[in-house]
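Researcher: Checking consistency across runs. Here is DNA alkylation repair protein again:
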Amino acid sequence: MAKKVKDYYDLAYARDLSQRLQEASPAFEGQKFSLLLEKDLENLEFSQRQELLAKSIKDCLPLSYQDSLKVFEKILGPELEGGLGMFSEGYWLWPIGKYVELYGDQEFELSAAFSKELTKRFTGEFSMRPLLARYPKDTMALLIEWSRDENLRVRRLASECMRIRLPWAKRQIVVLDYLEEFTTILTNLKDDRDKSIQKSVANNLNDLYKEAPDKFEKILQTWQKEDVSPSCAWIIKHASRTKNKKIATEDLCKKAEF
């Protein structure tokens, strides 16, 4: 039986994370961290494990938010190459991102800057969503800038963090109020050759179709007025999967009526 995602975050994982944090800061209370986790961690589901780990880190690292981020920066390690490895190699950083997600929503510049560095080793899509909710205008402006970044992981983050129906996250419709910025970000990325970015843009549009089909159609019609690159063609096809499924179902229903 394949190992479940939640089971990567067990007590052995927690001991390794504790050692990393203790080496980065003498302020981190490793023994207390173990005591907070040993009873419940392995009985919890995935999301609850992440929350417990993040809250336990906060309880055991008696520093300001800014100083805590400095500790985390010490353990991030080297940037990953290409578009792979965020979950296979960077998976162990998930509770660090959860910490920023839970406690960083009032520190826009600090949290955004850290999320940008985090995504180069793992992903910053979850830690950016509270900023998008609290500071939508500033966040969307920053995401436009990131959509042009030389680092493909940062470009992917610009798209992925604003998805309406991001897996493992609450539904968030902020982008519907910032459609011009949303469109600019996706348009900046529509010809990107990186497959992970193409998938993110397509998933963004598929989410949009489920909420506002008219807005979805407007974006695609604008793109199709120009020369469509192979990347953009793939995105349009993948983004239209829910729409095409709906059309196919409607056609079957019409045939059944005769």
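Researcher: Does this match what you'd expect to see?
Model: One thing to look at in this run: DSSP finds 14 helices and no strands in the chain.
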